[in-house]
Design brief:
The protein is an all-alpha fold. It has one domain. The chain is 63% helix and 0% strand. It is built from 6 helices and no strands. The longest helix is centred in the N-terminal third of the chain and has 34 residues, at 3-36. The chain is globular and about 50 Å long. It starts with a helix and ends in an 18-residue tail after the last helix. One of its GO terms (cellular component) is plasma membrane.
Length: 153
Amino acid sequence: MSPLTSFLQRSTPHALALFRIVIGLLFACHGASSLFGVLGGAMGQGGTVPTGSWPGWYAAVIQLAGGLLVMLGLGTRAAAFISSGSMAYAYFSAHQGSALWPIQNGGEASAMYCWAFLLLFFAGPGSWALDRVFFGDRGQEAAPSAQREPSAV
């Protein structure tokens, strides 16, 4: 195994944790802006979404709660799965009808969040997750290492 491969394998859980933290923080900011009118407010127009309005208020609650849970690494897989689904719903209900490609229909953020959360659902939280503090390594599968068949040369 080369030194680079060894370094990359040792670093993967930490890089995944940084990815999780950044994605969770950014997603939580979307929810906070819509619910509390901070950071530019709802849709960057100031103000908040009306409490209980469908789907905006519910999406904002999922964004805030899901983003915080993912950022902290607490129930990461469940929070990521729900967050991914909410972004898929947002993409297909609000964006996809106006044009085929996300760059054309304004749905890039929804599409990228959907796929980022789906990755976290499958890959898990990486290192530095609160789940490990509260529950140890129970239920935390390590990312499978890339195993290669010996090549027949």
